[in-house]
Structures are given as structure tokens and as C-alpha cells.
Amino acid sequence: MIWEWGLLFVAAFFAGALNSVAGGGSFLTLPALVLVGVPPVAANATGTLALLPGYIAGAWALRHEVKNLKHVSIKLLTMTSVVGGVIGALLLLWTPSAVFDVLIPWLLLAATLLFILAPRLVSKRRAGPVGPIITAPVILAVAVYGGYFNGGLGILLLAVFGVLGVGSLHVANCLKNVVSALLTAIAVIIYIAGGLIYWPQAIWMMVAGTLGGYVGARASRHVPVQYLRWGIIAIGLLMTAFFFMRYGV
Predict the structure, then answer these.
(1) What is the pTM of this model?
(2) Domain residue ranges in the chain
(3) What SS3 string covers 115-163?
(4) Record's family (predicted)?
(5) How far is it, in rounded angstroms, from Cα 27 to Cα 162?
(6) Dihedral sign, CA of 210, 116, 82, 126?
(7) pLDDT digit string (tens) for 140-150?
């Protein structure tokens, strides 16, 4: 139906715009896909694919910031991101639909709480870096979460890099985009192999998300980020309440 494709386009457009500024795009893509009849597990996978170009573009745009990286190994981040993405995607693939239906509102609630706590989390930056013995398992755990459920991933990564001692927020943002792109790409490959992707919807939403990302990046100069954050939090709370009522949790 026309309204369904319109809903998916609008959701993906604004999801791409939100992700280019403050994150939170999955609060729109996942509910929209579920509302048009895509099963929740497949909706999570399809929505993740739809947002992948934005992660890749963000990583490429900030690639020069990696030159300022002194204390975190890119090889270590790459390895842990890929392994974590694989584990998370396989867990999603093996999760029964009935179980994921119950998990959705709790996952959305957790992601919303991350946004509410974001300023405090991101501001907690260590004076010095930590070693790979701590860095590897922490990034691995976050990557598993990202491969399983993408909501709030960016905020979580920024907070983690701050705690791990990445002193510059610009460098942390670059690393966030790199890790997000890597784990999402590898997770999407597994989603595709597992037959979870609804391709017409995914391609349609990728186009809309890319357009939204461009518009959002340009508009971000004129819209206070604080207003966007509260808007995202409101959407997250509404979607959480909707899914709690939908599945009777």
C-alpha cells in the first residue's frame, strides 16, 4: 500500500537525519517496519541495513581524525568489532521471534535511557588511556550488543571511548563511526545469509536514509542539538510504551 511505503520513506529519512546529528535513527526504522507487517527480528535486521550507508559515510568523512590516534590500536578495534558483530548477528539469527517480541520494548527502553544519560556518560573521560587487556573485552561486548540491536550504539561507543581514555571527542566520534560501520557491515552479511532482509523495504529505506543524512548534516548548523536530543528521547519513550502495550509485556 502507498501509505506503507510513505511511512517507511519518512521514517528512514528522519532516521538518517537524526543519525547524522545525534543518533537514534533505529527508534524510527524499527517501529515503522513492524507497523507495515515486517516480523520484529527481520525488521531489526532490515532497519540495520537501511542505516548502514550512514555509518560508512560518517566513518569516511572523519577518516583523517585517525591520524591523531595514539593509544588505541586500530587493528584491535577492527578485530573486536568484527568478532562482536558476528556474535551479535548470530544471536539475533538464533533468537526465536516470540522471545525477540518480548525483548524489543526492553531494548528500546535501554537505548532511550542511554540517550537520557548521554551527556553524563560521554563527559566521563579518563586522564590517560587503558591497555588492550581492558579495551578488547569492553569493545567486544559493545560490538555484540550492536550486532544484535543497534539502538543507542553511538552513544554507548562514545561513552566507552571516553572511559577508555580517548581524550579528544572528535577522535572518539571517528572511532565510533569506524566501529559502527565495521560491526554493522559484518552483521548485515550474516542477516543476508540468514534470510532476514526484506530487500524492497531495505533498498527504499537506504535511499531515504541517505537523503535524510545529507539534509540532517546541513540542517544541524541551524537546529540546537539539545532540542534534537529531547525529541529523540520523546520518540524513544513513545515507541517503548507502544511496544510494551503491543506485546503485553
Answers:
(1) 0.82
(2) 2-246
(3) HHHHHHHHHCCCCCCCCHHHHHHHHHHHHHHHHHCCCCHHHHHHHHHHH
(4) Belongs to the 4-toluene sulfonate uptake permease (TSUP) (TC 2.A.102) family.
(5) 24
(6) positive
(7) 998 999 899 87
